[in-house]
Amino acid sequence: MKRIGFIFILALVVMAVHSCGDSKKAPVSIIFDTDMGCDYDDVGALTMLHALADSGEARILATVVCLQSLGQNIGTDVINHYYGRPDLPLGRPINGMSNDCEGTAAKWMAALDTHFPHRVRTIDDVPDAVEVYRRILAGEPDTSVVVVTVGALTNLSNLLQSPPDKYSPLDGKQLVAKKVKRLVAMAGTFPEGRESNASWDAPSSAIVFEQWTPPIIFSGWETGNEIVTGKRLRESGIQNTPAKEVYTICGEHQPRGRESWDQTAVLVAVRGTDRYFNTVKGWIKFEEDGSNSWQDDPNGNHEYLTWKMPVDELTKVIEDLMMHEPVTGQKTKRIPLIYSSDLYHPHGDPDDHYDLAMLNALDAFEVKAHIFDLSIPGRNPDEYGLAPLRQMAAIANKPLPPYAVGLRDALASPDDKGENQPQEYQKGVELVLKTLREADEKVTLFLIGSCRDFAAAYNREPELLKQKVAAVYVNAGNGPDGIQVEWNVFVDPQAYVCLMNSGLPIYWSPCFSKEEHTATPQEVAEQSTQAFNTYFVVPNQAELLKNTSNKVKNFFTYALSKSQEEPLQYLNRSPESLPETPRSMWCTAPFLHAAGWKIYAHNNHYIACPPEKAKTLGIADKEVAVYEYKNVLLTSTAAEESTSEQFGFAKGRNSPVFKGVFTDSDAPVKVFRYIHPEFNEIMVSVLANILGTN
To answer: Fewest CB atoms within 10 Å of the CB: 215, 630, 651, 653?
Structure first.
């Protein structure tokens, strides 16, 4: 009796363990291969996949497009961004098929492009799908990856035929056999027929069906054709999701909804068949004309779906997933930023244009306000840089941020509020204060000109800034010990003193030390004052920008040539050659720090990216320590007079003097110092990568 009781209890324990194991089942690792744009069930399918990822059932490794048309790749990127996964690897077939959609398809693809953020601007922004497949598969455990394809099989055919490379010594067939658990394909009609995904690139389909060794599950045309979805989503109270946008546009012509061919494939890829479908095992027989038939075989490596769950119940399962909204905190979070720049057109120094491009390429910030700093003496107020701001908004596919022109004259003292200056120059300070008052979270202030407008805002409402400012990046000055005679200080020394003594959390990024050069390795090792600056030199601007899009190239040629042509039309020209001259830069590292990006060694050069993306790329252990911000306690005075003419100003102009003491305790001011002797080379590599890939 005791023996029977023990066995019974043991059985209960085993059942409990298995039950717990099922509830914590590891997510299915998925690569999604789509013809996004040719039909809009792809939108529903990718939305479902993100819903399953948010629930912990799936882990999305990459999303690749089987076409090299720009719209399809943008649409995929939009959905990834919306669901908080902007860094998912994208891919497309090099020299593959294109499909420039017309009619309703073109309309909804344009709506996604216009209404939602994304990183893809040109087709050159999207790498070869085979490279993406090989890199991802090589880094995954054996027989762990499920590939789901809902378009032409071009990428999969190319993958099978790929040779060994830097990612794996295996050829494509060997790599697939080793790493892929199964393929789920929305392709074919069963038991026989002709379906578009299979027939569209029939030679590729034939190669995949014959040479793909892991199991293949076919979700045939006849399966998804019975499941009509979208009407419920369209009529729901959900707002501003890509899926609802698309299904609403298409609902004008298909009010009952759309067949759900691609959604069934995603559902099976993640959750399997048991709850939803029966299957028939055997082998697909594929003909040159793209038609297929079937050969039953209980030992076959292929299966196709047949009905199990009633259609209305399955429709509800799919629509519930299609109506998914981002989980709290999952949707891409950007850092609210007020940006002050002495950006002019024609330029005063084109480094401001590089900074604007960097700001947008990072895609880490939500620019709440752009303040045009009018600190350059002798410039006309109407020359502020609205033209480049408009151009960059068009390139980044973002609305023009709120902007205003700042104060015209230098502050008379550290506590000057600037209120006695003409009304037409008050809008910059007013916009800073208005933006902070309306902010529901703390805002970062970032300046690359004088401190004038931020200082005046602080003097007017110091408690507001102390309450609402997360950090102030001050790109100005000469380091923590000595006279401050750098340009951004010199044009408004009293504003500089005000901000540095404000008690606000300052990330001080001196532009120069005492001399205009980057520190030697010995000076870095000795923590010389020469290392307390952000200055570096791009040796060749044409080389730096060679991998940027045509519009970005035109953005810089427009600035560097001081063109007065219509700025937005200029972007669409054939790009002209860029100058091979050097360019001094200052703000790249502070931008990275403000964005929370790190620097990594990658493929014999350096890149910067969020730590989450570094994990995706498999380079999290390759982080390189390039710079730091050190706590420093400052004393300052504005009493010392300059003894020589500088920057066109006469002798006798007051210049602040700072004495700095470093401390291990937290301090309001943290000063930038680079700690890598190859700082210049690393920053050039990072800047080229960011501008060339975003």
So the answer is: 651
What is the rounded distance in angstroms from the CA atom of residue 79 to the CA atom of residue 601? Answer: 29
Rounded Cα–Cα distance for residues 445 and 411 (Å): 19
Query: pLDDT tens-digit profile of 183-200?
Result: 999 999 999 999 999 999
Question: Residue 164 to residues 352, 617, 642: CA-CA distances in angstroms?
Answer: 44, 19, 65
Kindly provide the residue ranges of all beta strands, DSSP E only, lying in 97-173, ordered along the sequence: 145-149
Q: Name the residue type at position 34.
A: T
395 and 121 Cβ atoms separated by less than 8 Å: yes
Name the residue among 420, 387, 419 with its Cα closest to residue 403.
Answer: 387
- Which tokens hold the place of 533? 């600056």
What does the pLDDT look like over 518-559, one tens digit per residue? 777 787 777 777 788 999 999 999 999 998 888 899 999 999
Considering Cα of 663, then 668, then 673, then 676, what sign does the dihedral take?
positive
- Cβ contacts of residue 354 below 8 Å, gap of 6+? 556, 583, 585, 687
130 and 178 in contact (C-beta within 8 Å)?
no
Q: At 234, list the tokens.
A: 């369209």
For strand 627-641 and strand 469-474, is the pairing parallel, antiparallel, or unpaired? unpaired
φ/ψ bin of 400: left (φ > 0), alpha (ψ from -120 to 50), beta (otherwise)? beta
- Report whether 320 contacts 423 (CB < 8 A): no
Q: For residue 605, what is the enclosing H or E element?
A: strand 605-609
Residues with Cβ within 8 Å of 135's Cβ and at least 6 positions away in sequence, in order, are 89, 167
Model pLDDT, residue 581 = 95
- 174 burial (CB, 10 Å; 0-12 / 13-18 / 19+) is middle
Q: What is the pLDDT of residue 506?
A: 96
Cβ–Cβ < 8 Å for 374, 384: yes
The model's pTM: 0.58
Rounded to whole angstroms, how far apart are CA atoms 551 and 567? 11
Regions of the chain with pLDDT less than 50: 1-23, 329-330, 639, 643-652
Report residue 218 as tokens: 């076919």
Query: What are the backbone dihedrals phi and psi of residue 623, each rounded to the nearest 5 degrees, phi first?
Result: -65, 140
Rounded distance, CA 658 to CA 674, Å? 20
What count of residues does the chain have?
694
The two tokens of residue 241 are 């999701």
